[in-house]
Design goal:
There is one protein chain. This protein is mainly β. The protein has 6 helices and 21 strands. The chain has a 7-stranded mixed beta sheet with strand order 12-21-17-13-16-15-14. The mean pLDDT is 82.
Length: 378
């Protein structure tokens, strides 16, 4: 064995490499901390197990009372409303144009064409513009009239599919046996996989695509997220955001949070209150005043900063979600679990240790009109 060739002193590079102790911080530094606030929120709210791969729910609302009119001349005896809205009106109904103030009494309805008595009440005749809104004030029935036709709002069937998500880890028997700084494997990787698994579900809750395929022997379903269900209250901001239910929560990317936090520096301090509190175990970054005097919690999705903002990315998204109409639905017996595999379970005599986090679940997003989405914030 050769002897050490050294001069009058020995430098660090002349010491055998494996003889040196490694100065290693025992704490693993993660690029992104766990920030799965929506997943945490829904796990702490009401939750019911799903009993099959598709979940359904029924929705209904009160009969609509606001109509959209086509343009009409002053004193016109016929007013046309938007397609399908004639079904909301009955002979005898009092309507009022909310822009001009003129009221009408409906004498007959033919599809979406309303025959009306004009200037009913004190307001004079006035021309109507396209897209004027007409309020159905209520029926004024004649004395001795027969029972009018009833009005019903059709129920709507909502549905979503369960989605299977699996986040595995696998190490050779040797890698699992050796001593490592900061703890042994696969325990460290298992902890990281748990966070990754939770982040996948967080992403599914917001951006999941609802679909189901049974082509051939391959059967796969995926759960739709909030972005799939919100249709009515969906607005492209296409630029900067300016200020303008008690169970609403705002989830926003960092660019949306930037504009919200500026509200208190632009003469609108009543709308924005910074916070550092927890709601259902979730850190709340601030509150914004609601229309009913309540404070709406704001949760900043810092990991969305990895996405572009504006119309080209999801960091420009701001979700307003009514948590009372959202429910997490894990398939019975298949909610999130940590499964470990030994040599026997891996099969073929493989010298390895592994495991995975496994979840099959979906979400209910009922009454989509109670939720909102602003996108394109830049």
């Amino acid at each position: 064995m050769p002897t050490l060739a050294a001069g009058s002193d020995v430098s660090t590079e002349e010491i055998v490499a494996d003889e040196r102790q490694v100065d290693m911080d025992p704490t693993m530094r993660l690029l992104d901390p766990d920030s799965t606030q929506f997943d945490t929120f829904t796990r702490r709210l009401q939750s019911r197990p799903a009993t099959r791969e598709k979940v359904n729910w029924l929705e209904e609302e009160y009969v609509g009372r606001v109509l959209t009119a086509s343009a009409y001349t002053s004193g016109a005896s016929t007013i046309n409303v938007a397609a399908g809205e004639g079904a909301l009106v009955r002979a005898g109904d009092i309507l009022r144009n909310m822009r001009t103030g003129e009221a009408f009494r409906v004498s007959s309805v033919a599809a979406d064409a309303l025959t009306v008595v004009t200037s009913w009440g004190a307001a004079p005749n006035a021309a109507g513009n396209a897209s004027d809104k007409l309020l159905i004030v209520g029926p004024a029935m004649q004395q001795g009239s027969t029972i009018p036709n009833p009005r019903y709002q059709q129920r709507v069937l909502g549905f979503n599919y369960t989605q299977i998500e699996r986040t595995p880890w696998l190490f050779t028997g040797t890698a699992a046996a050796i001593s490592l700084l900061g703890g042994s494997e696969p325990n460290k990787e298992s902890a990281r996989a748990g966070i990754v698994h939770k982040r996948f579900w967080e992403s599914t809750a917001f951006f999941g695509a609802r679909d189901f395929s049974s082509a051939g022997d391959v059967v796969v379903g995926s759960a739709g997220g909030a972005i799939e269900f919100i249709q009515t209250n969906r607005q492209n901001v296409n630029g900067e955001l300016t200020a303008g239910s008690e169970n609403k929560v705002i989830f926003t990317g960092t660019i949306g949070a930037y504009y919200l936090s500026r509200f208190n520096r632009s003469g609108q301090g009543a709308f924005w209150k910074p916070g550092n509190e927890r709601v259902h175990g979730v850190k709340v970054d601030g509150y914004i005043s609601g229309v009913f005097g309540t404070q709406i919690p704001i949760v900043v999705k810092k990991e969305w900063a990895d996405f572009p903002s504006g119309v080209n990315g999801y960091n420009g998204n701001l979700f307003v979600l009514d948590m009372s109409n959202i429910e997490r639905r894990p398939l019975v017996g298949r909610d999130t679990k940590r499964i470990t595999y030994d040599i026997k379970s891996l099969g073929n005599g493989r010298d390895a240790e592994g495991g995975e986090y496994f979840t099959e679940a979906t979400y209910t997003f009922a009454q989509e009109k109670t939720h909102g989405l602003l996108y394109g914030i830049a």
